[in-house]
Amino acid sequence: EKKPPGAMRMASVVRDLEKRDLLPAIVFVFSRRGCEEEAQRVGSELRLLDEDEEIAARKIVHEWAVANEAVASLSSERARLHLLARGVAAHHAGLLPQYKALVEDLFKRGLVKCCFATETLAAGVNLP
């Protein structure tokens, strides 16, 4: 399957930021759907965490999933949780609060390297 040109460009931009040691980054996207699509595209192409970071992220995600079993078991959340182990996330108002809190926690710990977000992230979340 051929990837859309925009997806290749965004992955290329993120890869360039990584090479220049400019991650973590928040990429603002106009729509919730756009956030999800970009996170999926970039997350399917890039792995932004090193081995130790991935182990740490997986541990935190697992602990979160145990504590939030009802949310973690939703089919809509499985792909999102997988992306977190690659250092990629989406963040927008349409996500469940428990999941948004997980993304914010991982970002603060340096375990989300690229977050695709709507302006709601800038409007009231304190991220470093």
Give an overview in words.
The chain is globular, with a radius of gyration of 14 Å. Helix 1 crosses helix 2. A three-stranded parallel β-sheet has the order 1-3-2, sandwiched between helices. It has 128 residues and is mainly alpha-helical. It is built from seven helices and three strands; from the N terminus they run H-E-H-H-H-H-E-H-E-H.
Helix run count: 7
Helical/strand content category: mainly alpha
Query: β content, as a range?
Result: 5-15%
| Largest sheet data | 3 strands, parallel
- The radius of gyration over CA amounts to 14 Å
Percent range of helical residues: 55-70%
Strand order of the largest sheet: 1-3-2
Mean pLDDT: 88
In whole angstroms, how far apart are the ends?
Answer: 37 Å
Describe the global form. Answer: globular
Order of helical and strand elements: HEHHHHEHEH
Low-confidence stretches: none
How many strands? 3
SSE blueprint and pairings:
Elements: H1 5-19, E1 25-28, H2 32-45, H3 51-67, H4 69-72, H5 75-84, E2 88-91, H6 97-108, E3 114-117, H7 119-124
Parallel strand pairs: 1-3, 2-3
Q: Tags for this entry?
A:
128 residues; mainly alpha; three-stranded parallel β-sheet; 7 helices
Please give a quick description of this structure.
This protein has seven helices and three strands; from the N terminus they run αβααααβαβα. It has helices spanning 5-19, 32-45, 51-67, 69-72, 75-84, 97-108, 119-124, and strands spanning 25-28, 88-91, 114-117. It has a three-stranded parallel sheet with strand order 1-3-2, sandwiched between helices.
